[in-house]
Design a protein that fits this description.
- Helix content is about 45%, strand content about 15%.
- It has about 325 residues and is an alpha/beta fold.
- The chain folds into two domains: about 130 residues, Response regulator (Rossmann fold), CATH 3.40.50; about 140 residues, GAF domain (Beta-Lactamase), CATH 3.30.450.40.
- It has a five-stranded parallel β-sheet with strand order 2-1-3-4-5, with helices on both faces. The protein has a five-stranded antiparallel β-sheet with strand order 7-6-10-9-8.
- The termini are far apart.
Length: about 325
């Protein structure tokens, strides 16, 4: 009867812990888990595992000090110790791990499948006895102490950077979700406006009002394509923060200097047109100064047909890149 390998896993990431636990159990191993260094040490002293796999950053007792305790304990010093870390190994990590007697430093990846594959390969190596157990050459030397401090600082900075990226992604997703919820509310309200409006002008004014009041855009206006020599765009309805903006600029749907903004391009191509960053997009140069005075950061124009003319709905946001794919699809329903 084959003896089941006993493995101790120390990791404060519950998702990672569950993933490794499942993978090793499918390999026929008996697995013990701990979410901090102190619990891992107590489990090791009780269960005497055949292998320890530890994260480097752990609560109460970090992975480096946990390894030191193992190598200083006669009953545990023979147990192979592996780092399976969320941060990639640096030369300092390799030096420090080698000095502590760590047999392997494995960097986690963003792929669960790849991490499982790394664990399976690790178990195969242990079973095949491919490792030569490293002696701890400098458990408490000043050089190793300095290496530990540097390695921990690097790991902590990496974790801080990771958390900051997650915070930014969460903030972006939360902001996008709020915008989409407002858009759905605006579309719901627009049905009421549609049924209550007696005239086309009343409908257009009501839609622009919803875009500002409910969807929280800074400005919404509707213009029509004129047939004059300049192919100008004539605003007929506007709602929002617009202290003289439309009167101060020239708009065209022709192939000229003033025809390459969102409104002109939307009319000319028959497709929605977006300027994601008014400050940096050269196509917005003729209107940039006046737009920035009023806090417009991005804009979208959506073409549609009225009974008497080709028209365009222009919407402005005070946020850069405010119009994602989902939001554009919802706005197109207004056309």
């Amino acid at each position: 009867m084959e003896i089941r390998m006993k493995i101790l896993i120390a990791d404060d990431d519950l998702n990672s812990l569950e993933l490794i636990n499942s993978a090793l159990m499918h390999q026929g191993c008996t697995v013990f888990t701990a979410t901090n260094g102190d619990d891992a040490l107590r489990l090791a002293q009780t269960e005497l595992p055949d292998l320890v796999v530890s994260e480097t950053l752990l609560p109460s007792l970090d992975g480096y000090d946990l390894c030191r305790r193992f190598k200083s304990d006669g009953a545990l010093s023979h147990i192979p110790f592996v780092f399976f870390s969320s941060a990639s190994a640096t030369p300092d990590d390799d030096f420090f791990a080698s000095a502590l007697g760590v047999v392997k430093f494995i960097a986690k990846t963003s792929s669960n499948e790849r991490n499982i594959e790394l664990m399976r390969k690790l178990i195969d190596e242990v079973r095949d006895e491919r490792w030569q157990l490293r002696e701890a050459s400098g458990l408490y030397s000043p050089v190793v102490d300095a290496a530990q401090a540097k390695a921990l600082a690097n790991k902590l900075q990496s974790r801080v950077d990771e958390l900051e990226r997650e915070r930014r992604e969460f903030a972006i997703n939360e902001r996008s979700l709020r915008r989409i919820n407002r858009m759905f509310q605006m579309l719901f309200e627009s049905e009421r406006v549609l049924t209550r409006s007696q005239h086309e002008s009343e409908l257009l004014s009501g839609i622009c009002q919803l875009l500002v009041d409910v969807a929280d855009y800074r400005l919404a206006w509707v213009g029509i394509a004129s047939s004059d020599p300049d192919k100008s765009i004539e605003p007929i309805v506007s709602v929002g923060f617009e202290p003289g903006y439309l009167e101060s600029i020239k708009l065209s749907w022709g192939d000229n200097e003033f025809g390459y903004g969102p409104s002109g391009m939307a009319i000319r191509t028959g497709q929605p047109f977006i300027v994601r960053d008014i400050q940096s997009d050269d196509r917005y140069r003729p209107w940039r100064e006046e737009a920035e005075k009023r806090g417009y950061a991005s804009s979208i124009a959506i073409p549609f047909n009225l009974d008497f003319a080709v028209a365009v709905l222009s919407i402005y946001s005070n946020e850069v890149d405010a119009f994602d794919e989902t939001e554009v699809d919802l706005l197109k329903k207004l056309g």
